[in-house]
Amino acid sequence: MSDNLTYKKSGVDIDAGNEFVRLIKPFVEATKRKGVLGGIGGFGGLFQIDLNKYKNPVLVSGTDGVGTKLKLAFMMDKHDSVGIDLVAMCVNDIVVCGAEPLYFLDYIATGRLVPEKLVDVVKGISEGCRLAGCALIGGETAEMPSLYQDNEYDLAGFAVGVVEKERIIDGSTIRSGDKVIGLASSGLHSNGYSLARKVVFEKMGHDTSDRVELLNKSIGEELLTPTRIYVKTVLDMIPQFDIKGIAHITGGGLTENIPRVLPEGTGVVLYPGRWNAHAIFYLIEKWGNIDRDEMYRDFNMGIGMVLILPEHQVDMAIKFLLQYGEEPTVIGEVVAGDRTVMYEKG
After folding, report:
1. Which of 137, 166, 202, 274 matches a 20 to 30 Å C-alpha distance to 33?
2. Whole-prediction pTM value?
């Protein structure tokens, strides 16, 4: 009978899901690395740790999403970069322990599965995995018309890495006099977007295509710039330097994230005048009439990753980082304190 109900009539298209899996296979295959067993389509992703490489391996895991930055992707109908953000938010978190990311899984939830649109998302996830050196070994795509709008989706990711137990970086050896090196971010990364969107689009009334003074791209392009992935730089740096602590600067900014790696009895003094934040931060601050302290708590302010190491290694570390295409700056130093971050003029 024509009025018989089906899953498709209820809003879930199994055929579209199968087509989506077929379309993303090449991008999943492109991320394969040593250790991956099997392919996509199984009930679980398999990965074998190389026990010849690790004598006492410790697994490190991290999970995250992209947050309301996705609203920019919807507004611009551009979906090939938020997948990079998704991977970056997870792998940058686990590399701070000194862990090598091994594999990644994603979760995509949407109101209506449009294979061509979500393939672009997976392209970005594949690129992020390539940049991080990890394999995309599985995921889940859920079509839920009663929870999401047809033209929207949400992303979550999960990364697993491994580190030799004796080489875990936990900040315990940080001492007064150590220096703080900041690695430049590519922009807002994936934090502070609820505030940024409120300022840029609601208060100022800008459109994503608008061009304003100080920006060399449209506002939408600036805000959609993908999060920088620091994994390969950090992993190559670890054997050559005594890196005592690493902080990924995400939600909470420099103010909240650096203390997470500081031992008792220490604090950090930062000198904001020593590095240049992207123009977008100053525009948001000006347009929103936002206090500077609030800016440093909500945004990365141009620093995406922080490394803490002995003073005598700083010059060589800067040279090393420049060779890797990073933009490093000595942004502060460790002092006696109560695990807080203070700001002074440099």
Report:
1. 166
2. 0.94
DSSP H or E stretch at residue 60: strand 57-65
Whether 237 contacts 98, CB under 8 Å? no
pLDDT per residue as tens digits for the range 13-30:
777 778 888 878 888 888
And the tokens for 259? 């203390």
- Mean pLDDT of all residues in 123-143: 95
The angle at the Cα of 295, spanning 293 to 296, to the nearest 5 degrees, equals: 65
Phi/psi at 253 (nearest 5 deg)?
60, -160
pLDDT tens digits for 100-123? 999 999 999 999 988 888 999 999
Report the C-alpha gap between 237 and 226 in whole angstroms: 23
Q: Which residues of 85-110 are buried (b: 16+ CB within 10 A; e: fewer)?
A: bbbbbbbbbbbbbbbbbbbbbbbbbb
Contact by Cβ (8 Å): 112, 147: no
Q: How far apart are CA 155 and CA 338, in angstroms?
A: 37
CA dist list (Å): 161 to 126, 175, 193, 200, 246:
17, 27, 28, 37, 16
110 token code pair? 């949407």
Q: From CA 172, how far away is CA 326, in angstroms rounded? A: 26
